[in-house]
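Narrative summary of target 7.
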Amino acid sequence: MSTQDFTTTLIVNQSPSEVFNAVTNVRGWWSEEIEGNTAKQNDEFNYHYEDIHRCKVKLTEVIPNQKVVWLVEDNYFKFTEDEKEWTGTKPTFEISEKDGKTALKFTHFGLVPDYECFEICKDSWTNYIQNSLKKLITTGKGQPNGKDKPQTENEKKLSAK
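Modeled conformation, tokenized:
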């Protein structure tokens, strides 16, 4: 059986530039709790949600209007046996234009079904990309986690534990 990294794609009417700007505005679609820079190659940022999830991310490849690659340098999950499960994985955003529309393909390389967090992470990423990031791209306002406010149903469930 081949490894299946998590991936999801969305198509919008906005330009590759608008999509790229939204992707790199991580506070606008993932979390207002981001600390650090999120737009240029070698930028580093920290994400945290309560004491449930935190990670350190480095942008290892940034091609304006085409591609953004993150490297998860360190990770902590409270809810998995292997707390560092994402460490070394690469969330990747690929932007392409076709027939006047822009496609954004998100692949979290290394996030595979064998991971304990796969189902929770798959659901959360799908929501962040297909809902929050898409809204940021199309309306200018995403639905990121606010300060100590869960955004996804999975985060609400994990917070209640």
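The chain has one domain: 7-160.
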